[in-house]
Write a structure and sequence with these properties.
The chain is built from 23 helices and 15 strands. The protein is an alpha/beta fold.
Length: 553
């Protein structure tokens, strides 16, 4: 093993805290089932697509007798999608519960994500391997991937792999799309009477896999605390140098949970919330004007510096930009061959402008050349714009600077504007998990095994009451179909787990909204500092501001 830092060595020895009900004799943990459930929407269609797993009851664990525990089992685990802090502890929780139930039981890892179960790329996870990854960040124990499980051939190959190793259950650790895959696999395995149980675990740093039962996805706590440390450092620098406006783009394409949480933790001058932009039907000019109002107000006080937080997916929430991106996606998907035959960027730009609607053509023409190139160059395998690669922070800097220059010539602005751009994303995906995420993930893994041992397929592991100490958390499972609706994907209606957006009438946003005007003009920065792992609980074990506010704290 490579040389280890003192923190690595210490974290290997950290013992995650479990909910009280999951401690003690594992044979004394019983499953309590509630009433049958319904999906969040499109009930008739989803009942037809999942006839064998739809409507299952919510499960909770309580002290009691569990005759199913103690069997020798073989379980496979998949890490799916982007990394999130705590994934290794989910696997550790599964491993420890499995071995506690029966030391002869075996845990396998499907390497490289869902492709591992399809292609029979499998490794046994031993105590020696597991102990080298406890409480650490990353997904490097078995790797991850984004292969979708959706074709009959993939399901057949997955079943063949499971039968080869005698696997009784599969745990899919992933986000909304990955757990949708898990739900489809659970239904297919049940239709084939395979006896293989499939359970999911809620992962994504974006925080958009949440609902009344899934209070947060794992990794969100650690990632936002990591980003907030960096933002706090920049705020301290900004208030020291007093000469730069820092435009900071933060991960989170589909929702602004990361930006909102970091805003609550650090109190920047501006924090844009994409959902609010869409709700108010704000144009790109209006977003720019909102920034300029704050820049000018601070300049009037002699404060030519500040910090602005920008969600990664903002550009899609601005109506005219969303329309433009939608048109480009359709146009370049249909005419990909002709578009790629055009020899120069100028030819491509001219052709696109001619083919777009009048309104979208105007928007496209008004954008800086660099942004136009990103809209045309960076596309995913389906021909869609890769929004994460659009440098929204630089676009806003350019548009704000241009408008301020015009105002200065008219004598409407006398300040100085110098801006720096940042993007915080990958910095937070593999950080050492916070104590909260280390505990939460371990409990999710332990709970996932309990669901598997009870034969509850098509469920996602969950823990409730996360605003309380870990001993008081309530473990259980929720049917995956309960969280689903039908959405248009690549021209077809598909069953998917509904993403959770920032609720503009929710406590976290309302708290932010009540304070942002003060933060805008006054320098009210907070400096969270680095994640603390050792010390008093009020420093080391606290959940996010979002979770506390949602729970009325």
């Amino acid at each position: 093993m490579a040389d280890l830092s003192p923190l690595q060595k210490a974290r290997y020895n950290y013992e995650p805290k479990l909910p009280e009900v999951l401690t003690g004799d594992i044979a004394e943990i019983a499953v309590a089932l509630g009433e049958t459930t319904e999906s969040v929407a499109d009930q008739h269609q989803l009942r037809g697509l999942f006839p064998l797993t739809y409507g299952a009851p919510v499960a909770r664990f309580a002290k009691g007798k569990n005759p199913e525990v103690g069997k020798e089992l073989r379980v496979g685990v998949i890490l799916s999608g982007g990394q999130a802090p705590g994934g290794h502890n989910v696997i550790a929780g599964i491993f420890d519960a499995l071995k506690k139930s029966n030391p002869k039981s075996v845990l396998y890892g499907f390497k490289g994500g869902p492709s591992g179960i399809i292609d029979d790329d499998v490794m046994e996870l031993t105590s020696e391997i597991m102990d080298a990854y406890r409480n650490t960040g990353g997904f490097d124990i078995i790797g991850s991937g984004r292969t979708k499980l959706e074709t009959e051939e993939q399901f057949e190959k997955s079943l063949a792999t499971c039968r080869k190793y005698g696997i009784d259950g599969v745990v899919v650790i992933g986000g909304d799309d990955s757990n949708t895959n898990g739900a489809v696999l659970a239904e297919w395995f049940k239709k084939k009477k395979s006896g293989i149980t499939v359970v999911g675990c809620p992962k994504t740093i974006d925080g958009d896999l949440k609902n009344e039962h899934i209070e947060t996805s794992f990794g969100f706590d650690t990632a936002t605390k990591t980003f907030s440390e960096l933002i706090g450092n920049i705020e301290k620098d900004a208030n020291s140098a007093k000469k730069y406006w820092h435009f900071i783009k933060l991960m989170g394409r589909s929702a602004s949970h990361i930006a909102l949480e970091c805003g609550l933790q650090t109190q920047p001058n501006i924090c844009i919330i994409s959902e609010e932009v869409k709700e108010k039907n704000m144009s790109l000019d209006q977003v720019v004007d909102t920034i300029i109002d704050v820049v000018a107000a601070r300049a009037a006080r002699g404060l030519d510096f500040g910090v602005i937080l920008i969600p990664e997916g903002l550009i899609e929430f601005i109506p005219e930009m969303g329309n433009l991106i939608g048109e480009l996606n359709n146009l370049l998907a249909k005419e990909a061959e002709y578009f790629n035959s055009l020899k120069s960027m100028e030819d491509q730009r001219e052709w696109v402008n001619h083919e777009l609607s009048r309104d979208s053509s105007y928007v496209f023409s008004s954008l800086p050349r660099g942004i136009q190139m990103q809209l045309l160059d960076d596309r995913d395998p389906h021909g869609n714009v890769q929004v994460s690669r659009i440098e929204t922070e630089k676009l806003l800097i350019e548009l704000v600077s241009e408008k301020l220059s015009g105002m200065k010539q008219k004598g409407e602005y006398n300040g100085k504007f110098s801006a720096l751009a940042h993007f915080f994303g990958y910095e937070g995906r593999c950080a050492f998990p916070s104590n909260f995420d280390a505990d939460y993930c371990y409990g999710l893994g332990f709970s996932a095994f309990m669901l598997l041992s009870a034969g509850l397929t098509g469920y996602i592991s969950n823990l409730a009451n996360l605003h309380k100490p870990a001993a008081e958390w309530v473990p259980g499972g929720v049917p995956l179909t309960m969280m689903m609706n039908m959405e248009q994907r690549h021209g077809e209606q598909k069953p998917v787990i509904r993403k959770a957006l920032v609720e503009l009438d929710g406590a976290p946003f309302k708290t932010f909204e009540s304070k942002r005007n003060d933060w805008a003009v006054n320098t009210s920065y907070k400096f969270p500092g680095a994640i603390q792992y050792y010390g008093p609980s009020e420093v080391c074990d606290q959940p996010t501001e979002t979770l506390k506010l949602e729970k009325g704290q």
